């Protein structure tokens, strides 16, 4: 089959009409000639004889006919030409069409769905190619460009995705670790022309704020903000910064408190220094360990060192370190602030010094007891809040508390009378009330009872001195009555026996009321005379109890 001249190849019959091109041929009706003649009416036909000039279309050409009308009207030819034209116009589409889907030999055309999908994809690709062309045409060389990207039909995952693959073997770059945002130079912006980004750019600022969180204290967990590409607004960042700083200060304070307290078994640096000096001076040989950690003190055992000119150091010592965590002492204020010996000083002291006063108080009370011959630790030295005294016990083993030891009934009775006498001595000779006397603060050592823990002991004329004494008496009575000592006085009898007072009330409520009345009388005396009673008047010497 022959081919039409070039002009005629511009498409099949449909194409000619649709594009509105100037028809090359006049309407058939205008020149009553046969179709072949019309078809042969080539533009290059030369002038003919005169008769021929009557016809405006000139003489029919004598050239041989290259194709028939049937050929021209052939649907098949039209298709062929159409395809040829498209190939020229959309080369990339054709290339795609050459893929396995369309031309492959293994193509399965039995499935309608598959075919439909293939056609759809083909259509989408064509559509996208058209979009790209239009995009290019509209944008031209303009600096402002528009994009039809969102209108594309073929989705990214249909296209070649090899670029997205991560090379997992390459460990030099962690794909999940985002780079830190670059800093903005001093001039305040980066980039050129339309790509300028200033330091006020919201995204840049946000990323920078996220990166700056790394400067917070290490214990302040900020998470992987950079990895998440978090963009913190200035407001949020500032609030976080404020919080981080106050957290840092708080933890520093906590740390400091810890360092300055003798909480638990640890001692603060100042106490450590005091102990170190004691060992260094040779007064103590070695501090072996902790005997007890109470609410208000920590007690250590130490081996005594060399005796000095004026002091004999016991072979074993107990070191009582008064805790400098002040809270524990709050409820003990009443013992000291009303004690006339410390009253004037109390109000002027800071809490740290008040704690030293507890140690001082214990030392004074022990000395008084020692002088009266009451079995109790002997004071070695007092340094600030650290009191060194003789150790009650042996070979680092402290004597058991009365509550922990099982005594024979004989020893129990012996212990009871000893305590009764010690309480009388304490009251009369030492002018003291223990104020925390119980089986917890009495040790059994060398076949006798030793009194310890006398930092809270007060004089009987303390505004609550008699109440404290009554409480001591109750503790002692109950312990020995329960312990099977038949001779044990009840608390009221014991109180009278110790104090020499003769309160006659036969029940506890009235008894306590009388005690408080006496205390009030004493207070009034202080108010009126500016000084306390030297002692509570009694009806005579209290009876001496003996086994
Ligand atoms: P706290 O006020 O903490 O009760 P204590 O003076 O009662 O302080 O001492 C606590 C414990 O330490 C006592 O129960 C006792 O076991 C032991 N202890 C204290 N002083 C001595 C000492 N001189 N010798 C032996 N052990 C002691
Ligand atoms: Mg105690």
From TrEMBL:
<keyword id="KW-0963">Cytoplasm</keyword>
<keyword id="KW-0597">Phosphoprotein</keyword>
<keyword id="KW-0399">Innate immunity</keyword>
<keyword id="KW-0479">Metal-binding</keyword>
<dbReference type="InterPro" id="IPR011009">
    <property type="entry name" value="Kinase-like_dom_sf"/>
</dbReference>
<dbReference type="GO" id="GO:0005524">
    <property type="term" value="F:ATP binding"/>
</dbReference>
<comment type="subunit">
    <text>Interacts with CASP10. Interacts with IRF3; RIOK3 probably mediates the interaction of TBK1 with IRF3. Associated with 40S pre-ribosomal particles.</text>
</comment>
<keyword id="KW-0051">Antiviral defense</keyword>
<dbReference type="GO" id="GO:0005737">
    <property type="term" value="C:cytoplasm"/>
</dbReference>
<keyword id="KW-0067">ATP-binding</keyword>
<dbReference type="GO" id="GO:0046872">
    <property type="term" value="F:metal ion binding"/>
</dbReference>
<feature type="domain" description="RIO kinase">
    <location>
        <begin position="256"/>
        <end position="500"/>
    </location>
</feature>
<feature type="region of interest" description="Disordered">
    <location>
        <begin position="1"/>
        <end position="27"/>
    </location>
</feature>
<dbReference type="Pfam" id="PF01163">
    <property type="entry name" value="RIO1"/>
</dbReference>
<dbReference type="GO" id="GO:0042254">
    <property type="term" value="P:ribosome biogenesis"/>
</dbReference>
<dbReference type="GO" id="GO:0004674">
    <property type="term" value="F:protein serine/threonine kinase activity"/>
</dbReference>
<keyword id="KW-0418">Kinase</keyword>
<dbReference type="InterPro" id="IPR018935">
    <property type="entry name" value="RIO_kinase_CS"/>
</dbReference>
<comment type="similarity">
    <text>Belongs to the protein kinase superfamily. RIO-type Ser/Thr kinase family.</text>
</comment>
<keyword id="KW-0808">Transferase</keyword>
<keyword id="KW-0690">Ribosome biogenesis</keyword>
<dbReference type="InterPro" id="IPR051272">
    <property type="entry name" value="RIO-type_Ser/Thr_kinase"/>
</dbReference>
<keyword id="KW-0391">Immunity</keyword>
<feature type="region of interest" description="Disordered">
    <location>
        <begin position="156"/>
        <end position="193"/>
    </location>
</feature>
<protein>
    <recommendedName>
        <fullName>Serine/threonine-protein kinase RIO3</fullName>
        <ecNumber>2.7.11.1</ecNumber>
    </recommendedName>
</protein>
<feature type="region of interest" description="Disordered">
    <location>
        <begin position="528"/>
        <end position="547"/>
    </location>
</feature>
<feature type="compositionally biased region" description="Basic and acidic residues">
    <location>
        <begin position="169"/>
        <end position="180"/>
    </location>
</feature>
<dbReference type="GO" id="GO:0045087">
    <property type="term" value="P:innate immune response"/>
</dbReference>
<keyword id="KW-0723">Serine/threonine-protein kinase</keyword>
<keyword id="KW-0460">Magnesium</keyword>
<dbReference type="InterPro" id="IPR018934">
    <property type="entry name" value="RIO_dom"/>
</dbReference>
<dbReference type="InterPro" id="IPR017406">
    <property type="entry name" value="Ser/Thr_kinase_Rio3"/>
</dbReference>
<dbReference type="InterPro" id="IPR000687">
    <property type="entry name" value="RIO_kinase"/>
</dbReference>
<dbReference type="GO" id="GO:0106310">
    <property type="term" value="F:protein serine kinase activity"/>
</dbReference>
<keyword id="KW-0547">Nucleotide-binding</keyword>
<dbReference type="GO" id="GO:0051607">
    <property type="term" value="P:defense response to virus"/>
</dbReference>
